[in-house]
Amino acid sequence: QDDTRGKGSLGPRGTGKIGENREEAAAAAVPSADGLKDSLYVAVADFEGDKDTSSFQEGTVFEVREKNSSGWWFCQVLSGAPSWEGWIPSNYLRKKP
């Protein structure tokens, strides 16, 4: 069980079946070169993570790879912090101007 508890591996707050078709979702979520700017978001506040999610600070830039209707988005850090990817709450993000 513990081997499935890596950062960001449980999907949005461990809700289950998100990501069963992760390869399909990843292929659909990869933006084209022109669409990359549309997937860039910046953190508007600090977020305190827990054992399943990473913390980040205001100003961290993310590439959004997958959006879930639960409000948790799968993102990769592009700048402002060491690179990592995982599920984060979308209400902490705003589209990068």
Set out the fold topology.
Elements: H1 22-29, E1 40-43, E2 61-67, E3 72-79, E4 85-89, E5 93-95
Antiparallel strand pairs: 1-2, 1-5, 2-3, 3-4
Biased composition (Gly residues): 8-17
Pfam family, one: SH3_2
Protein name: SH3 and PX domain-containing protein 2B
Can you describe what's shown?
There is one protein chain. With 97 residues, the chain is mainly beta. It has a domain at 40-95: Roll (SH3 type barrels). The chain contains 1 helix and 5 strands. It has one helix at residues 22-29, and strands spanning 40-43, 61-67, 72-79, 85-89, 93-95. The protein has a 5-stranded antiparallel β-sheet. A hairpin with a 5-residue loop joins strand 3 (72-79) and strand 4 (85-89). The longest helix has 8 residues, at 22-29. Residues 8-17 have a biased composition (Gly residues). Keywords: SH3 domain. Residues 36-97 form the SH3 domain. This is SH3 and PX domain-containing protein 2B. Residues 1-30 are annotated as: Disordered.
Observed structural traits:
97 residues, SH3 type barrels, five-stranded antiparallel β-sheet, 5 strands, SH3 and PX domain-containing protein 2B, SH3 domain, SH3-like_dom_sf, SH3_domain
